[in-house]
Design brief:
The complex is a heterodimer of chains A (269) and B (412).
Chain A: H1 2-11, H2 14-35, H3 40-58, H4 65-87, H5 91-111, H6 115-140, H7 157-176, H8 194-198, H9 203-211, H10 216-240, E1 242-243, E2 254-255
Antiparallel strand pairs in A: 1-2
Helix pairs in contact in A: 2-3, 2-7, 4-5, 5-6
Chain B: H1 2-33, H2 56-66, H3 77-93, E1 103-104, E2 107-108, E3 111-112, E4 118-119, H4 129-150, H5 154-185, H6 190-200, H7 203-206, H8 208-221, H9 233-236, H10 246-271, H11 295-326, H12 332-364, H13 369-391, H14 407-411
Antiparallel strand pairs in B: 1-4, 2-3
Helix pairs in contact in B: 1-2, 1-10, 1-11, 2-10, 3-4, 3-10, 4-5, 5-6, 5-8, 5-12, 8-10, 8-12, 10-11, 12-13
Classes of the chains: A mainly alpha (269), B mainly alpha (412).
Chain lengths: 269, 412
């Protein structure tokens, strides 16, 4: 295995190997998503697997085989379920594949000993956001696919999105690869591995201390943005709500405020 | 490794047996409240000995296993099979971080069992344990939603929809109720939260409003009456598990009971002091054998602590069952306004008040301030009670708008 890897890395240096992997994966996804033909399904799968294998060769190795197997399992599940999520037709299945991908991602976080962020990923994304997706999807389409679902996949949008995603992915991978520009600057002192912090008994308390001291401004800004979004959502709901006006005997409903200046906003309980 | 496997085996066996016997207890209590006798016939198999119907869970289990497991042709097969598995796996693996006692001594009759005291948790030392509990209880929602959707049946589907909206809504007050306890204990680790209560007093006493908010949310999360709208029999046949039978139905029902047991454990651990009982268990986290030397005393103390915790859990579960037969079910809009208009503000009030009191005690540090804080917390509780009953946004039972003639009446 490692001999093959060395030979392959000699033939294709790291960056071009990565580019090939991303291009092949993109092609596979394009065949799967944009063409939506049965005959190309096998072809797209082969391309996707090839790209995963290339990516696997490119990734650095861990010390023991147990870590290696765990990482590969979690990483490939995360990537494969994400790919299935965007290529599947049924919206409900899409949400479930997405949730599985999130589970694998949080497994990767736990693999790095990042307990808090791993569990928080499940709670926030899989537990709240995807459940809300499912709720809306079920309300919208109780009987499955609708024919107009295909319209949004116009011929140019899928390749464009794939291209953008591929460029983004390649840029990130290249930046944070061991010899890329995103590696930690050694001149700033020794790098503390995150696992050293994570095995600490008071992991969450230290995380909170870090967030509320070094990143205080960022936390406050994010909180403010969320608050504004929440107020906006409530405002939108009140705008569109049909309010019953006690004065009207016909019991007719009034939409919005514009045509009902006398109506109090919100329902009259 | 071996120790963890033993713990897992004990936990799984105990939980499944407990779930089976709680079903029997629930049936006997239902019978008691409705002035019947209840299942009292099944005893030891192949004999005539009836021990108060204690063999009933065995018969129930066999019935579920041997019944025909019918899969209707109109279901989404993959999700139909996956849903009960997801809900049971989530409900069981949630117990990995829940302590069932404090420690066991490291030696038995002079032979060392392990290097240090054995924590009575399957996965000890998980610092973000409470978030793990939250994460897995939110995964359990998938079982309900997917079961309802995959059944391709309008009653199941309505049950799934109701459940998802209810669980998402009540996760918010649940989190707010927990925040106060976490703030006071300074940790998300359940063992440390218990230790903090043994040291400073039970959080139900220090933050009564938080306890009330959390308990209501826990009832809703466990989908017990008066919050059992996902499966209310009078409206939805069986709710999300209408189409299920045999083993799959058993998995759903066991998972429901496990949710109730989880809720009881969390109420006890977070607010009712866990293994701590004044004057009975000692209040330091490590075992001290009540000051006596010798491992027998240590074992005694460990067992008393586990017994106290499990006894409290049992009392809470009996309370769950009493509530089931004494409270009528909420209407759906009442359920939602209880979550968003009552419990959410109350949770926020509790959080702010307990944060202020903690800070005040921390900075001033007078001993008598503790009693002032407790008194203030109880005043806040009664103030909130009076405020909610004056506003009457939930208990009001009138229709939200005057009844209008039906369309069919207008046409006629």
């Amino acid at each position: 295995m490692s001999e093959w890897r060395d030979q392959l890395l000699q033939m294709l240096p790291g960056s071009s190997l990565l580019v090939w992997a991303v291009v092949l994966g993109g092609l596979g996804l394009w065949f799967r998503v944009a063409l939506l033909d049965r005959p190309t399904a096998l072809f797209s799968r082969i391309l996707g697997l090839l790209s995963l294998v290339l990516l696997g060769f490119w990734l650095p190795r861990f010390g023991g085989w147990a870590e290696q197997v765990t990482f590969w399992l979690l990483a490939s599940v995360a990537v494969l379920t994400a790919g299935t999520a965007i290529s599947t037709r049924s919206p409900v299945y899409m949400a479930i594949w997405f949730a599985l991908s999130l589970l694998a991602t949080s497994g990767l976080f736990l693999f790095q000993n990042a307990q808090f962020i791993g569990f928080a990923t499940i709670t926030v994304y899989a537990g709240a956001i995807v459940v809300t997706f499912l709720f809306v999807l079920m309300l919208a389409q109780p009987e499955g696919d609708a024919p107009y679902d295909r319209v949004s996949w116009a011929w140019f949008s899928a390749p464009l999105a794939l291209l953008a995603g591929g460029v983004l992915l390649a840029a990130m991978l290249l930046t944070f690869s061991p010899d890329g520009p995103g590696r930690p600057d050694a001149s700033l002192g020794p790098v503390v591995p995150p696992s050293a912090l994570a095995t600490d008994q008071h992991h969450v308390a230290r995380l909170g201390g870090e967030l509320y001291s070094r990143h205080l401004i960022a936390v406050e800004v994010v909180g403010t943005v969320l608050l504004v979004a929440m107020v906006g959502a409530v405002a939108i709901v009140i705008q569109g709500k049909s309010a019953y006006v006690p004065g009207r005997q016909d019991g007719s409903r009034i939409r919005g405020r514009r045509d009902a200046p006398s109506a109090s906003s919100g329902g009259a309980p | 490794m071996l120790l963890a496997l033993i713990k897992i085996a004990i936990l799984l066996g105990g939980l499944m047996t407990a779930a089976a016997y709680f079903v029997l207890l629930e049936r006997r209590m239902a019978a008691w409240i409705q002035d019947r006798i209840g299942p009292n016939r099944v005893g030891i198999p192949l004999t005539n000995i009836r021990i108060f119907g204690l063999g009933q869970p065995l018969a129930d289990g066999l019935k579920f296993i041997l019944k025909e497991e019918f899969t209707p042709s109109h279901v989404d097969r993959a999700l139909f099979v996956a849903a009960p598995i997801v809900i049971l796996v989530a409900a069981l693996s949630l117990f990995a971080v829940i302590p069932v006692g404090s420690f066991l001594p490291s030696k038995v009759a002079g032979h060392p069992l392990s290097d240090g005291p054995i924590e009575m948790t399957v996965a000890p030392g998980v610092d973000a344990a409470l978030i793990y509990v939250f994460a897995l209880s939110s995964i359990a929602v998938y079982g309900v939603i997917l079961g309802g959707w995959a059944s391709n049946n309008k009653y199941s589907f309505l049950g799934g929809l109701r459940s998802s909206a209810q669980l998402v809504a009540y996760e918010v007050p649940m989190g707010l109720g927990i925040l106060g306890a976490v703030l006071a204990a300074g940790s998300l680790n359940l063992s440390e939260i218990i230790a903090a209560q043994a040291d400073r007093g039970w959080f139900a006493l220090l933050q009564p409003l938080g306890f009330v908010v959390f308990s209501v949310a826990a009832f809703a999360e466990a989908a017990r009456l008066p919050f059992d709208l996902p499966e209310c029999e009078q409206e939805l046949v069986g709710g999300y598990h209408t189409e299920y039978s045999g083993m799959k139905l058993l998995l759903f029902l066991v998972a429901e009971f496990l949710h109730m047991i989880t809720a009881a454990f969390l109420m006890v651990i977070l607010f009712l002091g866990g293994w701590h009982f004044p004057g009975l268990t000692g209040s330091s986290m490590a075992l001290d054998g009540w000051g006596h030397p010798g491992e027998l005393w240590l074992w005694g103390q460990a067992l008393v602590r586990a017994g106290v915790l499990l006894g409290k859990v049992f009392c809470i579960i009996v309370f769950f069952m009493l509530v089931r037969w004494t409270w009528p079910r909420f209407r759906y809009d009442q359920l939602m306004s209880l979550a968003w208009k009552v419990m959410l503000p109350l949770g926020l009030i509790n959080f702010v008040v307990s944060a202020c009191l903690e800070q005040l005690q921390g900075t001033l540090g007078y001993a008598w301030l503790r009693w002032v804080a407790i008194a203030l917390a109880w005043i806040v509780l009664f103030g909130a009670w009076i405020g909610v009953s004056l506003l009457g946004s939930v208990t009001e039972n009138r229709p939200r708008r005057p009844a209008q003639p039906l369309e069919s009446d207008l046409r006629a």
